[in-house]
């Protein structure tokens, strides 16, 4: 499994992904699931993947044009004129890779499926955030749905719904994502540290901050322990329940 | 979908279930998913169901021996000598009902599948809590796994993991379950109020408290609103994140 979240804030984009891949619980590995392309002053594009690892690695290789000699590479992702074009390019590649592996043609629950979160900004365009489906089509984040999750999305969703605020600082957004990841990691063995973090500042057209939360990260430990304590104290602060008979 | 939780406390058992059933989002109904049998001084048995409604209703009817004349009914669930016998009886009926509907024989992902939480106490036996699978076999709650969830289990699990305490009062347990249900209801349209609650006091061999949380329950509204506020305040109390560069 996998857990990745892309958040759109008024001040920029925040991405977080785990790094655990597994093929059964007895075959786990660490692979990067976050990929960033940037040309200072022109664009910054981040992509996170969930699903079949062969599929997602093939998509990334194709985006990087790794089939060409290093000198001949001029990948489309660095030439596209808008984020919409990039999403179309990525969606097309994703669909193609899945189809090339699926003997029976494209089916919705193919083993080779993968889902992608794509976000960034190009030139004078707005910052944008997309979720790309295995079928190659995509949806875009909006004011009403300002974040996307892929992979094991459910455990970490309640806190995102409750605490997300489009005006929040980057630091608070990273903290929020760490809490969401902690809930997921606690509940699903196939999601795990290290975590990759990328923070893109709106209109900077620069890489921004890239950061890896290692397995022994002291701040993550603080959050993980502190969140249990904070949740219990929040729970205790709620008004007590009384059985109806007792209130009559 | 459905959400049901059975909690084992040192002082007794607490059950909560929602009442929404759906066959597509355009066909929703309210059905009871919690069923209790009790004979004061002898036994109290509670059963909650998730899955195919035709299957679960058939199991309940068979347990009640509704195929017999009312005067001839003497259901096994009131005669079994231990909770283990009851679990075996229910598991056997469940497996039989599923098999009778599945043309292709028993398969793990059958459309007719259902899962059951069963708990209670009989005579001099201990209070016990079981989860019964569509295959008819079952597992029992223990000190390490003191609660079972069925249906849409993920959204409401983090708070259960963090705040459950075997020593907690019945009132706190109901409050905890309401928070867990609130998170689930907020995230999944197919789980909804009213909620059924049953609290069984250990060694009482009596019905205990049975309660329905209606759609406009003022306490549930308080919990639902208050939990959002409490979560955000718990989040704010956690130590702030700083990017590594800023701490150098």
From TrEMBL, chains A, B:
One Pfam family, short name: Proteasome
InterPro entries named in the record: Ntn_hydrolases_N, Proteasome_sua/b, UCP009120_prtse
Q: Its Gene Ontology molecular function terms?
A: peptidase activity
Q: Any idea which UniProt keywords this protein has?
A: Hydrolase, Protease, Proteasome
Q: Which CDD domains match?
A: proteasome_beta_bacterial (cd03765)
Q: Which domain of life is it from?
A: Bacteria
Q: Does the keyword Endoplasmic reticulum apply?
A: no
Kindly give the SUPFAM superfamilies that the UniProt entry links to this protein: N-terminal nucleophile aminohydrolases (Ntn hydrolases) (SSF56235)
Give me the Gene Ontology terms describing cellular component: proteasome core complex
Q: Which GO terms describe its biological process?
A: proteolysis involved in protein catabolic process
Q: Tell me the protein's name.
A: Proteasome-type protease
């Amino acid at each position: 499994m996998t857990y990745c979240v892309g958040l759109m804030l008024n001040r920029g984009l925040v991405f977080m992904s785990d790094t655990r891949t597994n093929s059964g619980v007895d075959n786990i590995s660490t692979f990067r699931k976050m990929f960033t392309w940037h040309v200072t002053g022109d664009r910054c594009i981040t992509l996170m993947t969930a699903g079949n690892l062969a599929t997602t690695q093939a998509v990334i290789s194709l985006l990087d044009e790794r089939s060409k000699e290093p000198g001949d590479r001029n990948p489309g992702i660095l030439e596209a004129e808008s984020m919409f074009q990039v999403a179309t390019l990525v969606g097309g590649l994703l669909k193609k890779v899945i189809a090339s592996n699926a003997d029976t043609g494209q089916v919705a629950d193919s083993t080779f499926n993968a889902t992608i979160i794509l976000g960034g900004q190009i030139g004078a365009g707005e910052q944008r955030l997309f979720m790309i489906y295995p079928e190659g089509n995509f949806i875009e984040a909006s004011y009403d749905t300002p974040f996307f999750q892929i992979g094991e999305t459910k455990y970490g969703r309640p806190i995102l719904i409750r605490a997300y605020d489009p005006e929040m600082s980057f630091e608070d957004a990273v903290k929020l994502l760490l809490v969401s990841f902690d809930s997921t990691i606690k509940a699903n063995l196939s999601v795990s540290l290290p975590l990759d973090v990328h923070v893109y500042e709106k209109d900077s057209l620069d890489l921004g901050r890239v950061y890896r939360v290692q397995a022994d990260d002291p701040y993550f430990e603080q959050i993980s322990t502190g969140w249990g304590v904070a949740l219990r104290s929040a729970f205790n602060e709620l008004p007590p329940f009384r059985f109806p008979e007792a209130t009559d």
